[in-house]
Amino acid sequence: MVKRFFSTELLEWYERSKRDLPWRRHRDPYYIWVSEIMLQQTRVDTVIPYFHRFIERFPTLQELAEAPEADVLKLWEGLGYYSRARNLQRGAQQVMELHGGQVPNDKLAVAALKGVGPYTTGAIMSIAFNQPVPAVDGNVMRVLSRYFLIEDDIMKNATRAGMEVLIEQLIPEGRASDFNQALMELGALVCTPKSPHCLTCPVMMHCEGRLAGMELQLPVKSKAKPPRPEFRTVALVEGTGREAGRVLVRQRPAAGLLASMWELPHMLLQEAPGVAAEATDEQAMDLLIQELAFSGLYTRPLGPYMEAEHTFSHIHWNLRVYRMEQLAASVAAEAGVRYEAAAALEENMARSLWITREDMALHAFPKVFLTILNRYFDEREQTYK
DNA sequence: AAACCGGGGGT
DNA sequence: ACCCCAGGTTT
């Protein structure tokens, strides 16, 4: 039977070809869990150094559960999808409270953990506990859609659910861990999206997609909407006096995009479409000056500094960064600037900080702001030498 | 079902 | 420039 052939050949190939990955060196459910969360929408080579640093800092689930959230975010800095880190820590706290610190060997209990969906449930149950639970990710859907010539849209939840049923029938007795990992390994190393290596594929002989010459058309996947462009004006405010040598950063709200991350102050240029992109430097700087003054900080513009871009799944940021200089309140008063709003907005400023380059090690920044800040501090050091 | 949620690497 | 990646949560 074709299905039996598939599982047997696949397992034999996996034993021969599997990569030596850090999380394959033990069966600690906590390590499996951390690796699976990091691997969501992220390549193996990217994850490996993050995994080592994370486990070194949080060797046990309990240490993760009890850590400050800021420490967790800092270790996740640059990986993206930061809610993964927040949910992983919440999940660890759930395990401490509900399961005495041991990841439960129970499908429903695992699925109830924060940040653990159908895929990760299957990955933990099978890889850590060798339980026959499907773990259907993008790799698995690509392999199955080709091998069984399934033309359903893999963007639909129903397609994934159908493939889970199929996988349940394919898992060999007692081999759930190896079988699920073998499927993903095949998708990662052989049955790749663009140029599948069919000639070295262990299951090529019975691959219906290949036999039909359809391997490059599969899987069928509906297109995602392109990210909407946003034009933003960014303030790189240099401190003066007591804050000399420091730059103003602020923390984002605890929910939503880049939750709790730190950044340079910036704002959306929300003119009519097309106009935002063409706002003059003077207009863009004026907006920042007004916004900062509203928070009780008086500044004067020094001029354009650099441009940067940052793409999310659904938004594309076009950033124009302006250097600005902190103005002492007394100077601002002499210049006729009114600042009675300052006291009322103390709490607004509570989420702002003046930082040095060394302070960057204490706060997590999205990549684009790391790039800007590092360039600025680099050039500043050069100037002083 | 669709939108929201980062960043990097392959092609 | 576009696609894809060991997805999950929210609406």
Automatic annotation (TrEMBL):
<dbReference type="InterPro" id="IPR029119">
    <property type="entry name" value="MutY_C"/>
</dbReference>
<dbReference type="InterPro" id="IPR044298">
    <property type="entry name" value="MIG/MutY"/>
</dbReference>
<keyword id="KW-0004">4Fe-4S</keyword>
<feature type="domain" description="HhH-GPD">
    <location>
        <begin position="38"/>
        <end position="189"/>
    </location>
</feature>
<dbReference type="InterPro" id="IPR015797">
    <property type="entry name" value="NUDIX_hydrolase-like_dom_sf"/>
</dbReference>
<dbReference type="Pfam" id="PF00730">
    <property type="entry name" value="HhH-GPD"/>
</dbReference>
<keyword id="KW-0479">Metal-binding</keyword>
<dbReference type="InterPro" id="IPR023170">
    <property type="entry name" value="HhH_base_excis_C"/>
</dbReference>
<dbReference type="InterPro" id="IPR003265">
    <property type="entry name" value="HhH-GPD_domain"/>
</dbReference>
<dbReference type="InterPro" id="IPR005760">
    <property type="entry name" value="A/G_AdeGlyc_MutY"/>
</dbReference>
<dbReference type="GO" id="GO:0016798">
    <property type="term" value="F:hydrolase activity, acting on glycosyl bonds"/>
</dbReference>
<keyword id="KW-0227">DNA damage</keyword>
<keyword id="KW-0378">Hydrolase</keyword>
<protein>
    <recommendedName>
        <fullName>Adenine DNA glycosylase</fullName>
        <ecNumber>3.2.2.31</ecNumber>
    </recommendedName>
</protein>
<comment type="function">
    <text>Adenine glycosylase active on G-A mispairs.</text>
</comment>
<comment type="similarity">
    <text>Belongs to the Nth/MutY family.</text>
</comment>
<keyword id="KW-0326">Glycosidase</keyword>
<dbReference type="Pfam" id="PF14815">
    <property type="entry name" value="NUDIX_4"/>
</dbReference>
<keyword id="KW-0411">Iron-sulfur</keyword>
<keyword id="KW-0234">DNA repair</keyword>
<dbReference type="InterPro" id="IPR011257">
    <property type="entry name" value="DNA_glycosylase"/>
</dbReference>
<keyword id="KW-0408">Iron</keyword>
